[in-house]
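Worked Example 4.2. Consider the chain below.
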Amino acid sequence: MTRAVARLAALGVALVALFAVSAVPAQASESALRDRTHARIAAVVSDAVNSGIYSVAQENYVTSALLPTYVDPKDLSAKVEERTIEAFWDIVADGAGASVGSVQARVANGATLLRVTGDASGDVQERLYRWLSRPVVEAQFDGKISAAESATLRDDIARSVDRLMRQPGGSDGKVAVSPRRI
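Applying the procedure from the previous section yields the following C-alpha cells:
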C-alpha cells in the first residue's frame, strides 16, 4: 500500500513541476490571453499559407474563431513563433504516425487534418486544444481570470482547433464550414 502512496506522491510532484515549468507564462487578463492564443494559431496558419498548405481564406476562417479577421494579433518573437509552429506540426505528425513533411504534403494536396490523423483525430484535436488552452487554465487557477472568462476563451479555442482540423488543404480557397455545435 505504501508503494501506491509513493507513486501517487511522485505523480503529484511531477504534475506540479510540469505546470511550474510552462513554456508560456499565463497572461494577466482574458484579453491578453486571447491575443496570445490568437497569435499562436495565426503563426501556425500563416506559415501554412506561406508554405502553400492552406489559403488566405482558410487562415481567416480559422483565426476568426478567436478574433475578427481585421484585428492583428500581438506578434510573437521569432523564437516563440518557430517553436509554436514546430510544436503544432509535431502534435499532428505524432498523432498521424508520420513525418511532419508527409503530413504537410498530404494536407497541401487537399486532405484535412481529420483525414490525415485518421482514428487518432480525436486525440490529436484534444492535444491541440490542451496545448493552446494551458495558459488559460493556469490563469484561472492563479485567479488572474474568472471561470466565465476561462470558459469563453476555451470554447473559442476549441472552435478554432475544430475549424483547423476540418479544413481541406491546398491553396484553392475552399473553406469547409463545420456544423454548429449547440
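The first helix runs from residue 2 to 20. Confidence is low (pLDDT under 50) at residues 1-27. Compare this with Example 4.1 before moving on.
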